[in-house]
Design goal:
The chain is mostly beta strands. The protein has one domain: Roll (Pnp Oxidase, Chain A). The protein is about 15% helix and about 35% strand. The protein has a 7-stranded antiparallel β-sheet. It has a two-stranded antiparallel sheet with strand order 6-7. A hairpin with a 6-residue loop joins strand 6 and strand 7. The chain is globular.
């Protein structure tokens, strides 16, 4: 049996894939941020959870609007992901600065990032503060995927998605 040694306590699990969460404020301004912590949290109804630090500019937008879009990041989106994760919407229009093409959500009032291979429209069904982050539970309202990813039965062929790995 291998010997065990105590390791430093820190956030350790890496979600897959990486996400860009987009939202719209009550003033109509769109924004997006790279999210490190996200996962499925319910099969019925289908729900996900995304974790956002209250100091982030998008936090109040999600709280006020009660919705967001979780955009799965393709390998081709790596520069936008890095930019959106290292700049604040307080300082300007990040989506325009990184050249993201936007579509409006069909169900929620938040932008869909058209360049991302999969986008998930969500309404917030609740939230909880968990240490440094607020966990927003999003009920999945609609999923948009690039046409070449959608199988005949409507499911997504993940082997074709080329998602950005952590």
């Amino acid at each position: 049996m291998a010997e065990k040694k105590t390791a430093a306590i820190k956030a350790l699990l890496q979600p897959r894939p990486q996400l860009i969460v987009s939202c719209t404020g009550k003033d109509g301004k769109d924004n997006a941020l790279a999210v490190e912590y996200a996962c499925n949290c319910s099969f019925n109804p289908p729900m996900i959870v995304v974790a956002v630090t209250p100091g982030r500019y998008s936090h109040h937008m999600i709280k006020e609007s009660g919705c967001f879009v979780a955009n799965m990041v393709g390998a081709a989106n790596i520069e936008a992901y890095r930019y959106l994760g290292s700049h604040s919407g307080r300082d300007g229009d990040k989506l325009a600065a990184c050249g993201m093409k936007l579509l409006r959500g069909d169900v929620v009032n938040a932008p869909i990032l058209a360049d991302c291979p999969v986008s998930i429209e969500c309404t917030v069904s609740g939230s909880i503060m968990a240490g440094s982050h607020e966990l927003f539970v999003g009920k999945i309202e609609r999923i948009h995927a690039n046409a070449e990813l959608v199988k005949e039965d409507g499911s997504i062929d993940w082997s074709k998605a080329d998602l950005l790995a952590p």
